[in-house]
Amino acid sequence: MKKLRVLLVDDEIMIREGFKRLFDWAAHDCEVVGEAADGMEALTQIDTLCPDIVIMDINIPIMSGLKVIQLSRIKHPRIAYVIVSGYDDFSYCQQALRLQITDYILKPVNYEEFGTCIDNLKISLFEQRVAAAEEPEQERTITGITRYLQEHLAEEVSLSVLSEEFHLNPQYISQLFKNEIGVGFLAYLTNIRMEKAKKLLLSGSLSVAEVAEQAGYGDYRVFTKVFKKSEGITPSQYRRDFLEMAETK
Questions:
Q1: pLDDT digits 0-9 by tens, 139-152
Q2: Domains of the chain
Q3: The pTM is what?
């Protein structure tokens, strides 16, 4: 059986080391392929490594674990998430349930119980893969479309453009996004543009107008409005907050 790929996300290095050293991943047909210490790093690692399972703390820097899950769900709907947190708070549990978290485990971790969680998760992932294999053509199509979007993010992209590029009906493409990813085309496009913009903003070398253009917005004022609606703050404030946080560390 192919080993399941695991990403560990916690800002405390001792917690991450504990998971790696104190739990027998190989005995549960898993391998730890990466780790992250904050929300932005977690999003990058998820995109890069495409893990099967993410073990995620809620209270991590830059972006909360729940926000990371909410955003990454759009691009990676089949990843399983296990929340490991020191917060025994019903409101956190409610949010986790809404995000369809596989399990919610409190620190300090009981590794025997954690092993049961992982084994149950393996069964669930296997059943999902069997169901997904029944529609390989649709999956290949949506993968091709999402790759095209990533490669042409700075350009004007619409359902009509995708229709011409892939020789498919626009309504069919729209339905594919809802069926395969779980969100509409526009919501998906906006999300990946915002993620691109945030990475460019944190690089610090481009103006807001240049970031807007590379993220696919010809008018930086429209970009600023969309960014603020998505993140709650303006692009400039997002960059300032990150730089101030970096200086205090």
A1: 788 889 999 999 99
A2: 4-132 (3.40.50.2300), 136-248 (1.10.10.60)
A3: 0.54
